[in-house]
Write a structure and sequence with these properties.
The protein contains three helices and 20 strands. The protein has a single domain (2-422), classed as Porin, CATH 2.40.160. It has helices at 2-5, 18-33, 172-177; strands spanning 40-42, 64-66, 71-86, 89-109, 112-121, 126-139, 142-150, 183-195, 198-207, 243-252, 256-266, 271-272, 275-276, 282-294, 299-310, 323-340, 343-358, 374-387, 390-402, 410-422. The protein is mostly beta strands.
């Protein structure tokens, strides 16, 4: 229950120590505090964004600019409460601040941009640099990006900011099957083009990537998020082989966006100083994502589904699956818009998330019976947006999780309340 509901405190994605980040942030905010508040203004967003696509999410955020300085600052915070029980047993009331994220951006030149995303998790207990890259624009269809990049598998990995979602928890498939906020050091190309109501774009990156932890981990299952604990991936590849991530997306202003993405490469350390240790073993991930707003009801639909194939050594037991699948769909229906409680342009929504993950797709070799290491969840929600950048959300989570042997599932349910806002 803890790993799904409370998002276990995995020490993932840490490559800058808390002390160094703390000093850096202190300098930034101390400098900002000395600037007259009248000099603060909203920095303009990327002027190329019109009918923004998921690939634009990294820049499509609110920023504050300090005077005439070439640096813009922004961020968001999340805080929540939950009361969750499993099979009638509860750990009681729980409060947390799962994350506070700082954005720092700079336009070095009209065609050179820098952006970084620094996340403080669990009340500052853990600090991560999730994105820190330079972008060089040569042509709308040909741009170079290098640094710590967010691998564009699916849509949620790039478009994960808390204030954009009506639900307290991130999708299970994005956090417990795919490694949410999965970023690596590398280089890549991206581009997009518009033609009337249509837009299309692509991204392709070569980065460091996964390691043997996806099958050697404390979860006792094939578990891609375990590789986030490998801090050395920000310094070197675990096996000398690049991870390829690519995505193509098509958007129509009237119908929405659909994206197809792939991520794959060798994950294991198959040699050491020229000595062959194992065969090369591949990992391949395919994903489809979509979002659309139905014009006659303003119903917003967003979701993604992913399929994973892993070459697991035959010496491993069958609890380590070589195929996985899972995804989610959110349905968000505005029911009231306008001046609500003296908030102009406020919105009251009802919503529901449907999600499913199967960590071990297949059958037992001995019996032919189904391997049932899976989970499903239904999360109805009510959300109030006093502004587009702030959300207050109330969720009721219902889940059932089944073990590998197909025993009666654990039934998990409870209330979650949270707030999230850009600042």
């Amino acid at each position: 229950m803890k790993s799904i509901i409370k998002n276990i405190k995995h020490p993932y994605n840490r490559f800058v120590g808390p002390s160094l980040n703390g000093i850096f942030l202190l300098i930034v905010f101390s400098a900002s505090a000395q600037v007259d508040s009248t000099l603060l203004k909203r920095a303009p967003q990327d002027t190329t964004i019109q009918g923004a696509m998921n690939m634009d999410a990294v820049y499509n955020r609110p920023f504050l600019q300090v005077g005439k300085l070439p640096v813009s600052v922004g961020g968001y915070i999340e805080a929540d409460y939950q009361y969750i029980g499993e099979d009638g047993i509860t750990e009681g009331h729980s409060f947390r601040v799962p994350r506070m994220t700082i954005f720092i951006a700079s336009s070095i030149h009209s065609k050179i941009k820098f952006l970084s995303e620094i996340e403080l998790e669990e009340g500052g207990e853990e600090i991560a640099i999730e994105f820190a890259a330079l972008d060089f624009s040569f042509h709308p269809l040909f741009n170079l990006r290098g640094g710590v990049v967010m691998n564009p598998i699916g849509a949620f990995n790039q478009n994960h900011d808390g204030p954009k979602w009506e639900f307290v928890d991130r999708p299970i498939s994005a956090t417990e099957m795919l490694p949410a906020t999965w970023s690596n050091v590398g280089f890549g190309l991206y581009g997009k083009n518009y033609s009337g109501d249509w837009a299309y774009g692509y991204e392709a990156y070569l980065t460091n990537g996964f390691n043997d932890a996806i099958i050697n981990n404390g979860e006792n299952r094939t578990f891609l998020p375990a590789s986030k604990a490998n801090k050395e991936r920000f310094e070197e590849s675990s096996n000398g082989e690049p991870l390829l991530t690519g995505k193509v997306a098509l958007r129509n202003n009237n119908f929405g966006e659909i994206g197809l993405s792939y991520m794959g490469g060798i994950y294991n350390t198959y040699q050491d100083d020229g000595l062959q240790l194992d065969d090369k073993r591949r990992l391949d991930v395919y994903a489809i994502d979509f979002n659309s707003t139905l014009p006659w009801t303003d119903t917003y639909l967003v979701g993604e589904f992913a399929w994973i194939s892993i070459d697991v050594p035959e010496t491993f037991t069958q609890q380590f699956g070589n195929r996985q699948k899972g995804g989610f769909i959110d349905i968000v229906q505005p029911v009231l818009k306008g001046n609500i409680l003296d908030f102009d342009r406020a919105t009251l929504n009802v919503a529901c998330r449907l999600e499913y993950v199967d960590w071990n797709v297949g059958t037992f070799r001995e019996t032919g019976g189904n391997i049932t290491d899976d989970i499903w969840a239904i999360v109805p929600a009510i959300s109030f947006r006093p502004s587009a950048q702030t959300v207050i959300r109330l969720n009721y989570r219902m889940m059932q999780q089944q073990d590998i042997l197909g025993n009666p599932p654990a039934k998990i349910s409870g209330i979650q309340f949270g707030i999230s806002s850009y600042f």
